[in-house]
Recover the amino acids of this structure.
């Protein structure tokens, strides 16, 4: 079976001759429309986010201005079948993945929520959009959450997993990524120096924590097996990050939870994504089939362009949400409003280097 990177069926929209009726909407009108969408939702709006939401935290988006995968046409990610393939060939793929991810993970781990993450958290705190599905694996929505960890996990579903944990597919042993990161460092103490000699210490991190190390040979990089499996006498076990790779299926439990969240919602507010992956797009289809409204705040082409029932505002989600939240808190005073004001002030902006503008999101 041939596996390919998800792309948009039509980079100018699904419908031939599609013209966005909201193409020239002003910011005040976009704020009013989004507030109306939330008001009509009566506290049951579901938020769906993509990679574009995390760009202002210094994490590069997947797609360029035309909706193509990354801005580097020569970049190719590791596929699931390659990562878990047994034998020397599979080990070589794992060397490539972990040698790059070893350098790419710390910037994702250390990234801070930007204003858009905080605005989404504020919507949750106000009860306007209590639930969230994110395609992002950076855990920044968790960092932004005003709730305790247990409540946060109830409210946020990471559709494609998270980089912050690793596991072995064979036995399911779960480990924190930082522990595995430390082990990689001990086994490969010279790796950062080797890469620095080729790249001068500068590498570009993709949303999945991978980096492009063109010119660096990784065949000397040591990849450890699962420590728990080794303790049980299981040899040559495989460790992979808790993210869904291209060619890998989302678990049935995650699928079922996502379907339930859409079914329980009054509508879906989509931010920063092209919806190129079917796992996210099918949730929009589910909402539309149930005659639930869908409003998108996203720049660039998307898989949902032109679909009946989908409205799209081509503006950065953050600028719209800021205006929406100001309207909700300006006329009221109280502990919740003060907490929302505090959340809105906490976002940190760090734009990735060498990004074209405008950029597609997700």
């Amino acid at each position: 079976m041939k596996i390919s990177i998800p792309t948009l069926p039509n980079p100018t929209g699904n419908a031939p001759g599609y013209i966005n009726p909201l193409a020239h909407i002003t910011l005040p009108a976009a704020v009013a429309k989004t507030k109306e969408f939330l008001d009509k939702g009566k506290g049951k709006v579901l938020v769906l986010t993509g990679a574009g939401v995390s760009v202002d935290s210094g994490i590069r988006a997947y797609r360029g201005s035309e909706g193509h995968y990354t801005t580097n046409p020569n970049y190719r990610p590791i596929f699931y079948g390659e990562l878990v393939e047994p034998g020397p060939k599979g080990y070589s793929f794992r060397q490539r993945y972990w040698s790059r991810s070893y350098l790419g993970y710390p910037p994702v781990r250390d990234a801070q929520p930007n204003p858009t993450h905080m605005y989404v958290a504020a919507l949750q705190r106000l009860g306007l959009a209590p639930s969230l599905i994110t395609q992002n694996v950076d855990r920044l929505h968790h960092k932004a959450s005003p709730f305790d960890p247990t409540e946060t996990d109830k409210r946020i579903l990471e559709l494609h997993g998270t980089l912050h944990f690793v596991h072995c597919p064979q036995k399911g042993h779960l480990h924190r990524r930082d522990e595995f990161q430390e082990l990689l460092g001990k086994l490969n103490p010279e790796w950062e120096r080797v890469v620095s000699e080729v790249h001068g210490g500068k590498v570009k991190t993709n949303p999945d924590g991978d980096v492009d190390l063109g010119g660096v040979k990784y065949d000397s990089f040591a990849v450890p097996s699962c420590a728990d499996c080794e303790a049980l006498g299981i040899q040559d076990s495989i460790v992979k990050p808790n993210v869904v790779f291209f060619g890998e299926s989302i678990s049935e439990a995650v699928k079922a939870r996502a379907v339930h969240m859409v079914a329980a919602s009054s509508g879906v507010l989509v931010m920063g994504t092209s919806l190129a992956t079917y796992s996210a797009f099918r949730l929009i289809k589910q909402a539309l089939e149930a005659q639930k409204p869908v409003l998108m705040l996203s720049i660039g082409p998307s898989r949902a362009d032109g679909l009946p029932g989908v409205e799209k505002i081509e503006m950065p989600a953050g600028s719209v949400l800021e205006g929406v939240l100001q309207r909700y808190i300006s006329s009221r005073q109280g502990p919740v409003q003060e907490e929302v004001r505090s959340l809105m002030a906490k976002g940190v902006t760090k734009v990735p280097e060498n990004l074209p503008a405008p950029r597609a999101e997700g």
Summary: Residues 23 and 170 are 49 Å apart (CA to CA). Confidence is low (pLDDT under 50) at residues 64-69, 354-362. The two ends are 26 Å apart (CA to CA). The first strand starts at residue 45 and ends at 49.
